[in-house]
Design a protein that fits this description.
This protein has 19 helices and eight strands. The chain is α/β, with parallel strands linked by helices. The strands form two sheets. It has a four-stranded parallel sheet with strand order 2-1-3-4, with helices on both faces. Strands 6-5-7-8 form a four-stranded parallel sheet, sandwiched between helices. α5 links the parallel β1 and β2. α10 packs across α16. The longest helix has 24 residues. The termini are far apart. It binds iron/sulfur cluster (2 copies).
Length: about 425
């Protein structure tokens, strides 16, 4: 696409062109420093570079073309929104990334200052008119997970058409029944939006598509157990980030090609860092595009990240939806079963998360765990303490970090991470 075609498309979406140009310039520089400067990258990373270079270009054009063909675009913020149902309704689902500081002052006119940056970011992107994904959405789906999001969606609903899914906070049978009813309510909202009834056949096909994407991501996760690490944590995080907004069938094919290349690299004993480089598991809050600060600091401190215990990572890909049930009701039961396994910190109790982290650390041969919490995120701040105790019991070195999207603390964080990595070497 030419620059003029890009600009015309962004103007049609009513973006603030000047502010948007500034955002892309910062994003391009950040990407160059953090991604393109890496050594020993896989050839398949060209796909990642291309997708990122066209993140506000070709992919947005595809969304506009889909809309012109009568499809609806559904934006989401949380892994509790079942993509299976969205696809079965013939709609396109995109994650609305909220990984950069933008429009913060505007956002603080709608939500309190002591709100996490992820929330301020999605409100700021909307108010500043710089996100072509948000502006392409026919429906935005929120969910009642943490208090900050719940209340922020009330403000966001004044700016965009929203559907709110109730996500329970416990996992008793009554909670499961509530979420099962919410799946039906979401299905009905999609049918109203698209004018298309969701059939068992469409849901079965959508489930296969989403499961195939998850299987490819699981394959990537498993390959990262190799030493030397065959892919950097930064690139693996980017793969997971892209999984939220690229076309799922294209994404799956490209990721499987990347995994083929990784298998070849492992067979030759090659990696992105020498064998025995300290290996870290990153656990905690989701890292949406372009939240690459901490992974960059870790991997420029002599360590390599081998897994992400996060929603932009294992929490989103660990479980598949059972493809065997026949009939819509049984398929909805299977969806409910799958989504109620998610170990988000918004649940109480949430002990399975501690078990998952210990199991991931073991299978990925991690030498230590870094817990990442976003400033003002209560659920993950509480769990950071529990994770610390669980890691001590498992004999795994542990560091808890709380930060935001700003760069002001980068130097101090790097000092802490370097000191931690030194204890592992
Ligand atoms: S951390 Fe919880 S609320 Fe946030 S995206 Fe994940 S499941 Fe949703
Ligand atoms: S990072 Fe924490 S506070 Fe922010 S939206 Fe997620 S769960 Fe809520």
């Amino acid at each position: 696409m030419s620059d003029a075609a890009h600009k015309a498309m962004w103007e049609a979406l009513d973006l603030d062109i000047e502010a948007h140009d500034a955002l892309l310039a910062v994003l391009g520089k950040f990407y160059g420093d953090i991604y393109m400067a890496q050594e020993g990258r896989l050839k398949g990373a060209e796909y990642l570079d291309f997708v990122l270079s066209e993140v506000h270009g070709l992919r947005i054009k595809e969304l506009q073309d889909a809309k012109a063909a009568g499809k609806k675009i559904v934006g989401t913020f949380c892994v509790f929104v079942p993509e299976e149902l969205t696809l079965a309704a013939g709609a396109v689902q995109v994650g609305l990334c909220a990984g950069a500081k933008a429009g913060t002052e505007l956002a603080e006119t709608l939500v309190p200052r002591n709100t996490c940056d992820l929330i301020k970011s999605f409100i700021g992107f909307k108010l500043a008119r710089i996100c072509p994904y948000t502006e392409s959405c026919d429906l935005v789906v929120g969910e009642t997970t943490c208090d900050g999001k719940k209340k922020a969606y009330e403000a966001f609903a004044e700016l965009a058409p929203m559907h709110i899914m109730e996500v329970p906070q416990c996992k008793a049978p009554a909670d499961r029944a509530l979420f099962r009813a919410e799946l039906v309510r979401y299905k009905e909202a999609l049918e109203k939006l698209t004018g298309k009834a969701i059939t068992a056949e469409a849901l079965a096909e959508a489930t296969r598509t989403v499961n195939a994407k998850r299987r490819a991501l699981q394959r990537l996760s498993a390959l990262r157990a190799a030493d030397p690490a065959p892919i950097s944590g930064r690139d693996a995080l980017l793969v997971n980030q892209i999984s939220f907004y690229d076309d799922p069938i294209r994404f799956t094919a490209k990721l499987n090609e990347l995994c083929d290349e990784i298998e070849g690299r492992i067979a030759k004993g090659e990696g992105v860092a020498p064998a025995k480089t300290p290996r870290l598991l990153l656990a905690g809050c989701p890292m949406a595009v372009p939240n690459w600060k901490l992974p960059y600091l870790i991997e420029s401190s002599g360590a390599v990240i081998v897994g992400e215990e996060s929603c932009i990572g294992e929490r989103n890909t660990r479980d598949l939806t059972d493809e065997t049930p026949a009939g819509l009701e049984a398929m909805l039961d299977a969806l409910c079963d799958r989504y109620m396994k998610i170990d988000c910190a918004c649940f109480t109790p949430n002990d399975e998360r501690l078990e998952h982290i210990a199991a991931m650390a073991q299978s990925l041969k991690a030498d230590g765990v870094i817990h990442y919490g976003l400033l003002f995120c209560q659920p993950y701040a509480h769990e950071a303490m529990k994770v610390g105790k669980a890691m001590a019991a498992a004999g795994l070195p542990y560091l808890a970090i709380e930060t935001d999207y700003g760069m002001e603390d980068a130097g101090q964080l790097k000092t802490r991470v370097e000191a931690f990595v030194e204890t592992l070497a």
